[in-house]
Design a protein that fits this description.
CATH class of the largest domain: Mainly Beta
Largest sheet: 6 strands, antiparallel, barrel
Number of strands: 17
CATH topology of the largest domain: Thrombin, subunit H
Strand order of the largest sheet: 2-3-4-7-6-5
Distance between the termini: 17 Å
CATH architecture of the largest domain: Beta Barrel
CATH superfamily of the largest domain: predicted glycosyltransferase like domains
Helix content: 10-25%
Radius of gyration: 20 Å
Oligomer: single chain
Strand content: 35-45%
């Protein structure tokens, strides 16, 4: 069985009520209602009304099993909304069975965590490192996890290696990004007047609650390009609304940053994003 299939066979789509307890960045205690969305033997994806932080330690209480355990937040798996957010978490105690569910025993080759080729997005150090199931969930959605980087000497943001991100570009998209870069270059009016440079109002949201209203520089059936001073990273997950009209109901589309390039003499970047299909749990 393939690695991804083995991982998914260990996952259950099951809703269980929870009490989510922790502390805010200001040190204030919170105790909210939550629920599981997907769970596995060592963690889960949960919904919480409270905004959680990567690396944060929270306590979960399951009224169904009357058990309590401590978990580490790996990161978001859905962009937050007014109703809360969805987060991937992993048990600090690997022997904890908060769910009261007996999972089948792991085969010998499954006892080790899977590995992934990931890159520090700051120093571009690439390493083949072990990643937990929760971190894989975050990489497949938000696209970015947080890890200590020996070269940077601190915690930085990591994502799949650039070659893996580049493989998501559909045929013909590279040319679209090149056209968008030329259209976005100051003084390149000839390119701006070409029909390949279609400017539409655009709403961009990331998985940490940040939002931006900008405009496209180019669009296609499989993606779009836009210019922004925001620091979006290669491989990062976004949701976009295009064309955006605040007076109308928004239809958000998931997308992933597959191209990023600085624009000379400005503080902005040209971003190429590729639309994504909804991933199955």
């Amino acid at each position: 069985m393939a690695e991804a299939e083995r991982r998914r066979s260990d996952r259950l789509m099951l809703t269980m009520p929870l009490r989510v307890q922790g502390k805010t960045e200001r040190g204030e205690t919170f105790d909210d209602e939550g629920r599981t969305i997907v769970l596995n033997r060592h963690g889960a994806c949960i919904h919480s009304k409270h905004t959680l932080r990567h690396g944060q330690i929270i306590s979960l209480y399951s009224p169904g099993t009357m058990r309590r355990g401590r978990f580490r937040v790996a990161g978001p798996v859905e962009p937050p909304s007014e109703a809360g957010g969805d987060w991937a978490i992993e048990a600090i105690d690997p022997d904890l069975n908060l769910w009261g569910i007996r999972f089948p025993p792991l085969a010998d080759q499954e006892n080790e965590q899977q590995k992934a080729l990931i890159e520090c997005r700051e120093c571009h150090e690439t390493a083949f490192l072990r990643v937990t199931a929760a971190e894989v969930d975050v990489l497949e959605t938000a696209g970015i996890i947080h890890r200590e980087c020996a070269k940077c000497g601190r915690e930085t943001r990591w994502g799949y290696a650039p070659r893996d991100v580049a493989s998501q570009i559909a045929p013909g998209e590279t040319e679209m990004f090149d056209e968008a870069r030329l259209a976005a270059t100051p003084g390149n009016d000839r390119r701006r007047n070409r029909r390949v440079a279609l400017q539409l109002p655009l709403l961009v949201r990331d998985y940490y609650g940040r939002r931006e209203i900008t405009k496209t520089e180019n669009v296609s059936k499989t993606g779009l390009c836009f210019v922004s001073p925001a620091n979006h990273l290669l491989g990062e997950g976004l949701v976009v609304v295009c064309p955006y009209d605040p007076s109308l109901a928004s239809v958000e589309v998931r997308a992933r940053v597959v191209h990023r390039e600085a624009i000379a003499a400005t503080s902005s970047n040209i971003y190429g994003v590729h639309y994504e299909m909804q991933k199955k749990a």
